[in-house]
Amino acid sequence: MAKLNILIFLALAIVASSLFTEQANADCNVDLNALSDKCTKFVKKGEPPVLPSDDCCRMIQKADAHCVCTKITPDLENTVSMPLAIMAASFCGNPAPHGTICGSVKIP
């Protein structure tokens, strides 16, 4: 009986973990989309540095910086300046943690 209870508990833990992971991934995609809407003009590759707007900073402050960094693809890096994105996140008070890999850049 104890083994059955342990198996049921483990099965429930796996299901709960899977649901949490799916929700966290969905939240991360929402963060990335919101950042794209509000912040693109401040982190565009080839553009001079411009301080982010209040709307952009609000989105940056709400975002999970580490998670968003995992979503940076080479295609995205063709249009987004990672140094400007890192600067914007830092300016807005939500920098990615040191050592985070953000696209092709490792946060110092």
UniProtKB/TrEMBL annotation:
Q: Does the keyword section mention Signal?
A: yes
Q: Which residues form the signal peptide?
A: 1-26
The record, for InterPro entries, names: Bifun_inhib/LTP/seed_sf (IPR036312), Bifunc_inhib/LTP/seed_store (IPR016140)
> Where does the source fall among the domains of life?
Eukaryota
- Identify the residues that the record assigns to the Bifunctional inhibitor/plant lipid transfer protein/seed storage helical domain, covering every copy: 12-102
This protein's UniProt keywords: Signal
SUPFAM superfamilies assigned: Bifunctional inhibitor/lipid-transfer protein/seed storage 2S albumin (SSF47699)
Instruction: Output the PANTHER family linked to this UniProt entry.
Output: BIFUNCTIONAL INHIBITOR/LIPID-TRANSFER PROTEIN/SEED STORAGE 2S ALBUMIN SUPERFAMILY PROTEIN, OS01G0800600 PROTEIN
Write the protein's name.
Answer: Bifunctional inhibitor/plant lipid transfer protein/seed storage helical domain-containing protein
Species this chain originates from: Asparagus officinalis
The organism that produces this protein has a lineage beginning with: Eukaryota, Viridiplantae, Streptophyta, Embryophyta, Tracheophyta
